[in-house]
């Protein structure tokens, strides 16, 4: 009698312990199957390749020498879309960006506000990308992505689920360049003026993340494209003594992927200063979403933060000889 009762109690306790684990396992397997099914259906529907360069919509990716514009949106600088379909994480990036389909039907690489550096990384990406576009470089089109609480609910990885839950609200999307290859500085030829302009750009933005190991450059449609500017403007992580930071010679230029080939830095300086004007800077800074500034963790108001970014960039522009001279000296030591 007592043996039977004991056996029943043991089975009951084991059931209480095992049931939650079994349910969690089944949920994860189901979520993975659903996500894989979505992915397969999507790729089949798109014929294995889906990008925005088919048809007449190639124009939005071309650059002009004016303040950044989004031609498909009647002159507005950026569009705002909802993230409809979570596709997969892109584990190549340290901040775990993801591939998503937005409400406009196109695919974007989503940069999440819930990642390590929060909205400051989005602000740096936003400013860096649009300054580069204004300077004549190819940069993927940006969109503002609204993500709701249900976005990515089928993702099985708990770490990524936490990231997505922390990213509810306004995020940043970059048009996905399907089939793009990493730009190899040894294998892909870059003319000296382009290399010099790129070194100038990253020194101006204080972008530390364009090295031979990680160029953050892509070869797409036989052209050079720039991506990942989230490590720019690193002064804003401390948000102190920005005046001193604005006059920095940018010592990290010694590690730049293009420095060895940047033999025309004086010519690049003149060209870039004619393209990146105070008017361009105003247009970009004024377009930073207020929501990101409010969530940046800085005590300064939205208006005060805009003024600091504006002043920082204008100060570097008017004192470009500081970082240009340092880049020339660093290159001389290299070659």
Descriptive report:
This protein is α+β, with helices and mostly antiparallel strands. The protein contains 10 helices and 8 strands. A hairpin with a 4-residue loop joins strand 2 and strand 3. Helix 4 (192-205) packs across helix 6 and helix 4 packs across helix 10 (320-334). The longest helix has 44 residues, at 2-45. The model is unreliable at 27-77 (pLDDT under 50).
- Beta percentage is 5-15%
Distance between the termini: 89 Å
| Biggest sheet overview | 5 strands, mixed, barrel
Principal-axis shape: elongated
Number of strands: 8
How confident overall, as mean pLDDT? 79
- SSE string, helix = H, strand = E? HEEEHEHEEHEEHHHHHH
Please give the share of residues in helix: 40-55%
Secondary structure class reads alpha+beta
* Contiguous runs where pLDDT drops below 50 for at least 5 residues: 27-77
Spatial order of the strands forming the largest sheet: 1-2-3-5-4
Give me the number of helical elements: 10
**Radius of gyration, in angstroms, nearest whole number:** 24 Å
Main attributes of the structure:
single chain; alpha+beta; 335 residues; three-stranded antiparallel beta sheet
Concise overview:
The protein contains ten helices and eight strands. With 335 residues, the chain is of the alpha+beta class. The N and C termini lie far apart (89 Å).
């Amino acid at each position: 009698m007592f043996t039977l009762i004991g056996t029943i109690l043991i089975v009951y306790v084991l059931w209480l312990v095992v049931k939650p684990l079994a349910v969690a396992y089944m949920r994860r397997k189901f979520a993975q199957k659903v996500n894989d099914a979505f992915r397969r259906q999507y790729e089949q529907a798109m014929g294995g390749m889906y990008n925005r360069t088919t048809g007449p919509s190639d124009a939005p990716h071309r650059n002009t020498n004016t303040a950044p514009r989004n031609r498909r949106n009647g002159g507005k600088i950026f569009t705002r879309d909802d993230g409809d379909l979570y596709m997969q994480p892109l584990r190549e990036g340290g901040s775990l960006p993801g591939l998503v389909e937005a409400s406009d039907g196109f695919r974007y690489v989503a940069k999440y506000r819930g990642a390590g550096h929060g909205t400051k990384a989005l602000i740096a990406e936003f400013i860096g990308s649009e300054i580069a576009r204004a300077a004549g470089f190819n940069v993927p089109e940006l969109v503002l992505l609204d993500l709701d609480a249900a976005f990515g609910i089928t993702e099985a990885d708990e770490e990524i689920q936490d990231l997505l839950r922390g990213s509810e609200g306004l995020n940043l999307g970059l048009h996905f360049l399907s089939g793009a290859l990493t730009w190899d500085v040894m294998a892909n030829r870059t003319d000296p003026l382009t290399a010099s302009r790129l070194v100038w750009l990253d020194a101006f933005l204080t972008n530390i993340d364009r090295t031979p190991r990680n160029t953050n450059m892509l070869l797409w449609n036989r052209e050079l494209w720039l991506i990942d500017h989230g490590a720019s403007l690193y002064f804003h992580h401390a948000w102190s003594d920005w005046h001193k930071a604005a006059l920095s010679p940018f010592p990290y230029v010694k590690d730049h992927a293009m420095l060895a080939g940047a033999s025309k830095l004086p010519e690049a300086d003149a060209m870039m200063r004619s393209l990146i004007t105070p008017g361009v800077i105003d247009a970009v800074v004024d377009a930073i979403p207020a929501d990101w500034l409010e969530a940046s963790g800085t005590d300064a108001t939205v208006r005060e933060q805009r003024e600091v970014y504006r002043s920082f960039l204008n100060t570097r522009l008017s004192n470009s000889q500081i970082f240009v001279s340092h880049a020339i000296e660093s290159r001389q030591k290299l070659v």
